[in-house]
Backbone:
């Protein structure tokens, strides 16, 4: 045996075979995800998230942002490839033993069965497991069946070449499978909202009109959005590694439980109802004082309470359930001004924000705005919610916050600070800025209010610097005249509080 062929022998060859076949299982599951709606990696990650300590999970989701989530997925993916590959390999070897007359056939059959059972149990769907199991088995089979008598050795150079070819083939297959998965997954619903509405005349579209108003009232400050986030700049908080893909045509919202008559509302039925347009800010309970998990959009939809009233509400609480098993229970009294949204800015609600329909609950934390909503069950007592089960509170109204988003040097030498401030439906009356760590205060300039109450305002503050170090502090006074508390607290469990600070160095 030559030195260089060592990695194709014994244990390392087995490891390579296991991994190559496992990657094929995961890759194939990803490729068919658009059709099956089940992806073994997502299913397995969800199970892992349920098993891992919730404090750890919460800190992954809240603190580390998108990048760590992708990294976690990659780690899970590699582990899962190892496990499924091992299942296939073990199945194959057992099958060989069992069917001595035709070891390759026995191996293939048992490997197929083993991987299929494993994947089917993970995604909880027998059909979605078929192709991934077949791909894994073929991978294992090709890599093993080529060798001569000795299962662990590749005796001749020809054997080794064949093994390398098999690996190259599996590699190429996986590039294609993953590409198919990405292409299918990125197909989001970005239809123009107005296409199905009657107002199509230039400038008369109610969404365009409102967005025009918002643009007029926005400050144009470098380094920050105006009063409205674009759909792409809007933050996302999602318990899933990838947002669920729901088909509007086969979707319906069921209203069940303690109602006069249980009802189902199709997507089209909801869109036919009287249209409601609302500017609304969302902020995640996990958003730190200086975080970015806050955003504002114009939402289009219909009144949630009208829909519930048609079913006839008898109970005191509503449990919102979503496709991804996320759920929240809220008192019905909290819903009087709530909305079922199917549009975000000028488009249909995008997939990552809850397509086809999400709930919007004024004045509350982002977590109550359930996405991919499927069912509203009316019950007689309060139940819990997804984050409550994981140590969070925050069923009350949002905390007041000032974001110091950007600092710029203007052409005349002045320094410009800019940001947003939000206090739920109370609104923002004033933002005060201190340049000396809170000794003295001055009022910032506020953008005009958006037409709807549950929205943020922009603020800006400009001055000619005369020293190079500034300790900036910013605080808000809400619409009721209440000054924001200076007491600092972390987001967990009640949402962050406290004034915003920024140490600023200015070149003189
Ligand atoms: N079904 C479902 N709804 C959900 C979530 C989720 O993970 N699944 N996340 C919630 C949380 S914690 C927040 S802050 C908001 C974020 O909404 P966005 O992603 O549209 O910004 O959605 C809420 N609704
Ligand atoms: Mo959130």
Residues:
């Amino acid at each position: 045996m030559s030195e260089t062929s060592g990695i194709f022998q014994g244990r390392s060859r087995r490891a390579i075979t296991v991994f190559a076949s496992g990657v094929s299982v995961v890759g194939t599951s990803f490729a068919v995800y658009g059709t099956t709606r089940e992806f073994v990696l997502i299913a397995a990650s969800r199970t892992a998230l349920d098993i891992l300590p919730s404090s750890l999970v919460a800190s992954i989701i809240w603190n580390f942002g998108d990048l760590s989530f992708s990294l976690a997925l990659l780690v899970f993916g590699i582990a899962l490839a190892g496990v499924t590959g091992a299942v296939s390999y073990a199945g194959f070897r057992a099958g060989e033993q069992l069917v001595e007359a035709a070891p390759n056939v026995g191996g293939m059959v048992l490997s197929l069965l083993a991987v299929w059972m494993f994947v089917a149990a993970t995604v909880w769907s027998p059909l979605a497991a078929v192709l991934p199991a077949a791909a894994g088995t073929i991978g294992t089979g090709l890599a093993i069946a080529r060798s001569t008598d000795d299962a662990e050795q590749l005796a001749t150079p020809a054997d080794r070449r064949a093994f390398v070819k098999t690996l190259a083939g599996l590699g190429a297959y996986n590039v294609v499978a993953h590409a198919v998965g990405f292409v299918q997954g990125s197909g989001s619903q970005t239809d123009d909202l107005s296409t199905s509405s009657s107002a199509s005349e230039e400038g008369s579209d109610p969404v365009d009109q409102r967005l025009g108003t918002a643009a007029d009232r926005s400050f144009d400050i470098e380094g920050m959005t105006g009063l409205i986030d674009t759909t792409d700049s809007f933050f996302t908080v999602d318990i899933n590694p990838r947002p669920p893909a729901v088909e509007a045509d086969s979707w319906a919202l069921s209203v069940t439980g303690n109602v006069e008559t249980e009802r189902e509302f199709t997507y089209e039925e909801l869109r036919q109802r009287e249209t409601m347009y609302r500017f609304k800010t969302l902020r995640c309970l996990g958003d730190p004082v200086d975080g970015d998990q806050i955003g504002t959009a114009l939402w289009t939809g219909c009144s949630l309470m009208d829909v519930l009233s048609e079913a006839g509400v008898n109970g005191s609480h509503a449990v919102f359930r979503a496709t991804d098993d996320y759920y929240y229970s809220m008192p019905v009294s909290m819903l009087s001004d709530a909305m079922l949204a199917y549009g975000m800015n000028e488009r249909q609600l995008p997939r990552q924000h809850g397509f086809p329909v999400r709930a919007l609950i004024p004045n509350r934390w982002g977590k109550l705005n359930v996405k991919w909503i499927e069912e509203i069950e009316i019950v007689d007592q309060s139940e819990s919610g997804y984050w409550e089960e994981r140590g969070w509170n925050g069923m009350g109204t949002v905390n007041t916050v000032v974001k110091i988003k950007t600092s710029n040097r203007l052409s005349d030498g002045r320094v410009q600070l800019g940001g947003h401030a939000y206090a739920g439906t109370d609104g923002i009356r004033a933002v005060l800025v201190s340049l000396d760590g809170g000794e003295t205060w001055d009022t910032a300039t506020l953008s005009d209010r958006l037409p709807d109450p549950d929205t943020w305002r922009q603020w800006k503050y400009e001055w000619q610097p005369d020293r190079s170090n500034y300790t900036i502090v910013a605080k808000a006074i809400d619409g009721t005249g209440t000054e924001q508390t200076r007491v600092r607290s972390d987001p967990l469990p009640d949402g962050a509080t406290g004034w915003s600070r920024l140490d600023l160095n200015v070149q003189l």
The CA atoms of residues 27 and 178 lie 6 Å apart.
